[in-house]
Design goal:
The chain is an alpha/beta fold. The chain has two domains: 47-133 and 225-352, 3-Layer(aba) Sandwich (D-Maltodextrin-Binding Protein, domain 2), CATH 3.40.190; 135-224, 3-Layer(aba) Sandwich (D-Maltodextrin-Binding Protein, domain 2). It has 16 helices and eight strands. The protein has an eight-stranded mixed beta sheet, with helices on both faces. Helix 7 (159-170) links the parallel strand 5 and strand 6. The chain starts with a helix and ends in a 15-residue tail after the last helix.
Amino acid sequence: MAVLRLAGCLLVGLLSMWLLLPALAAAESNSSSPSVVQEKADKAAAAIISVGIQPMWLPGGIITEVVRRDRVLRLALQQLGKEVRFHPFLSGVEVNNALQQGELVGGVVGDMPAITACAAERIVIVALLDQNFTSIVAGKTMLPDELRGRRIGYVPGSNAHYALLNTLKAYRIPLADVTLQSMPLQAMAEALAEGRIDAFSAWEPTPALAIKRYKHTVIHRQLTSGYWYFTNAFVQQHPEEVALFLAAELRALHWLTQSDDHLLQAVSWSEAAIRDLTGRTLALAREDIFRLVRRSLHALAVLPLLPEDELQEEGRLGKAVEFLQSLGNIPPGFTWQHMLACLDRSRGEAVLAAQQRYRTLSFDYEE
């Protein structure tokens, strides 16, 4: 009798296992199916905020190096289930390309890349990051109208490219009367010293480096701006995250202008970032970089908002849009109203009005 009861129990157990096998197999199949794996990957990707920066750009690159180390920003993003990753590029054109390919949701660029990004894809420019000069540098003292017949190095699509074109137009030099040579930013000073070009147009620190190392001469300067921008989709879906980045910039500016020691520390971070990106040590003394960026940082710290005059069609950006359109660099149907739709000063104003909430005076940076 006991043997029969034991056999019955075994039979019931085997039958239960046989009935459960399809469910277990389905569960195992679902847990490792491509759709589930992709869903997990998509969720992980959605938690990453990828931002493009330009270490070889002063003072903008110094500000972003401070933001990169901001523990306050990282903690605030972590509380929203997000993580930021910064990706270095050599120019705003490269940042734009990465954004258009879906590799980034935001970045920092100069004025001409910002205009072309606005024309090519819906973005929102949310803050001023830089106001400094681009320079045309020559191997000897000359007047800008002596650029006729010269070979001039430039980075296509950059703010220095726009400044160069604007200068040529101002001095009535047709493009057919110069030879524009596209080249990497870091190669310009050496190319000029070796006589492979006669001049170049670039942003800092490249002109300062050319002056310091080769005794080259700045023959023309033009004021340019740099900006934070994000895709329209990111701004609409994640307004608080955008505000946190604006707060991080404001916090960085407060910290940088609080003491010279802070600025010198940030310069050392910038030097390391440039070395990592280019494989070269920047041939400028730390004190030279300090003097180069100090004044513009203090001016920017007063009000890092989009300037009101840049929101007017007759302002500098409006003139740039008109000029670039005349050259065919942006689509003919692109109007000032399209550009204006990419400019949003209100988000920076909101952060300035809530500095205590956004902890703009709480400093905690990684070494």
